[in-house]
Amino acid sequence: MKSTLIGRAAALRHVGVGLAGWAASAAWAVNDLPGGPAVNQLGFAPPVTRIAEEQHWLLWMLLIICTVIFVAVFGVMFYSIWKHRKSLGAKPASFHESVTVEIAWTVVPFVIVILMALPATKVLVAQKDTTNADLTIKATGYQWKWGYDYLNGEGEGIGFLSTLDASQRALSSAGTPEGDNYLLKVDHPLVVPVGKKVRIITTANDVIHSWMVPAFGVKQDAIPGFVRDTWFKAEQTGDFYGQCAELCGKEHAYMPIHVKVLSQADYSAWVADEKKKMAAAADDPNKVWTMADLMARGEKVYAANCAACHQANGKGGGAIKALDGSPIVQGPVAEQMHVVLEGRNNGAMPSWKQLSDTELAAVVTFTKNHWSNKTGQLVQPSEFKAAREGKFPAGEGKSAAAGQAATGAAS
Ligand code: HEC
Ligand SMILES: [Cu+2]
């Protein structure tokens, strides 16, 4: 019942906003924004996910049931008042506590409420089922922008801030709104693949915000110090828009949400592109490092990635081979480069190709010159860059001079 009232109120609000907009926009002609709000929109945004479709179905089902009840109850009431009015000589019946009536008006509404609650509960439970996601993205609310971090799945490691487009900020400051996507355009939209289950983890950095995209039927509060989640699986590609839906300060209206749904191939291309940009922004793989710098960096990379298995003391344990005294670590440079790039033993030793060239060069140099391993060998990032293309350094490479760019020989 309640959601129906909210639905009606929302519809009325749309009409109100539509009229106000019409009055104020003599100069600013607005059209429908595909994936966003429409002019004089009545009701919800066209659904792009199963959940949103179900929500629409629920809305109409509940609205129709409530309307039928409304018409029936008021129909009987007005009919009775009219038909049995005093001027026609109607005499009130005098009866008390009719058991039949009492039971009827308890049981009938109860059954109706149950019939409405069952499908609603089913959708609610499905909405909360964030298991088996293909992609997990953290959305962090800030005053006043969104931060997105790809935590899991294709694109893992990508992270950026999504802020209102600067040109729209200027339009707003000047009081000259323009365009169908006014206050909905961002500098970096959230990009996701079509047909994949995307889990959105929400949290916030300062005050409560809310991540809402109407076309997906998704709205989840983002609360500082708490982690909440929601999910969607977009069934068509395109651009979809939403806004922060929890009053969060003076620029609450200036933190829009823009989700770009791409085909799987386009998404993979986007991920590759972002990764390249990130790598470029990180370390220059052509820089020539000194032994001391590589050792210092390598110690950190080792502690963060390797110590969990190989132990801080390099002794490993069980199936995890020791690095301290390992013939591989003490052997030719290329051998260990193969191990860290490709992994070993079906992934028991994982591949570390997601680390940057600099991190790999640093950690290999570190293991080769720490504990009892005193090989004096040094690996430069440029050698890993070449190794990724199949060109491994040849020979023993014992001297520190071997640290220059790989000389082209394949192993
Ligand atoms: C998930 C656990 C795990 C992590 C994390 C891990 N390794 Fe390993 N590593 C192994 C296992 C298991 C082996 C043995 C593989 C085999 O059976 O050949 C191994 C073997 C190796 C070897 C070959 C040793 C030899 O003597 O054969 C090297 C070199 C190595 N790891 C380096 C690293 C480096 C560098 C890191 C961090 C970037 C790392 N490992 C992180 C599990 C791990
Ligand atoms: Cu907000």
Give me the CATH superfamily of the largest domain: Cupredoxins -  blue copper proteins
Distance between the termini: 73 Å
CATH architecture of the largest domain: Sandwich
Number of strands: 10
Please write the string of helix (H) and strand (E) elements: HHHEEEHEEEEEEEHHHHHHH
* Unreliable stretches covering 5 or more consecutive residues: 1-13, 397-411
Strand content: 5-15%
List its salient traits:
single chain; 411 residues; alpha+beta; Immunoglobulin-like; Cytochrome Bc1 Complex, Chain D, domain 2; 3 domains; five-stranded mixed β-sheet; three-stranded mixed β-sheet; binds heme C; binds copper (II) ion
Topology:
Elements: H1 2-24, H2 50-83, H3 99-128, E1 135-142, E2 145-152, E3 159-162, H4 166-174, E4 190-193, E5 198-204, E6 209-213, E7 218-222, E8 228-232, E9 238-243, E10 256-262, H5 264-281, H6 291-305, H7 307-310, H8 327-330, H9 333-342, H10 357-368, H11 381-387
Parallel strand pairs: 1-5, 4-10
Antiparallel strand pairs: 1-2, 2-3, 5-8, 6-7, 9-10
The structure holds heme C (HEC) and copper (II) ion.
Describe this structure as you would to a colleague.
The longest helix is centred in the first third of the chain and has 34 residues, at 50-83. Residues 1-13 and 397-411 have low confidence and may be disordered. The protein folds into 3 domains: 2-81 and 98-128, no CATH class; 135-281, Immunoglobulin-like; 291-403, Cytochrome c-like domain (Cytochrome Bc1 Complex, Chain D, domain 2), CATH 1.10.760.10. A hairpin with a 6-residue loop joins β2 (145-152) and β3. It has a 5-stranded mixed beta sheet, with no helix packed on it. A 3-stranded mixed beta sheet has the order 4-10-9. The chain has a two-stranded antiparallel ribbon with strand order 6-7. Helices cover 40% and strands 14% of the residues. With 411 residues, the chain is of the alpha+beta class. It is elongated and about 115 Å long. Bound molecules: heme C and copper (II) ion. Heme C binds next to α7, α8, α9 and α10.
